[in-house]
Amino acid sequence: MIHPKTELRFVNSKIGYGVFATEFIPKGTILYVKDRLEIEITKNRFNKMDQTHKDIVEKFSYMDERGVRIVSWDHAKYINHKCDCNSMSSGYGFEIAIRDIARDEEITDEYGLFNIPDAIEISCGCHNCRQMLLPTDVDQHHMAWDLLVREAIEKLNEVEQPLWNMMDSGTRTDVMGFLSGQSEYKSVIHLKYQGQLNKKHSTIKSKGLSACAA
Ligand SMILES: [Zn+2]
Question: CA 206 to CA 23: how far, in whole Å?
Answer without folding.
Answer: 32
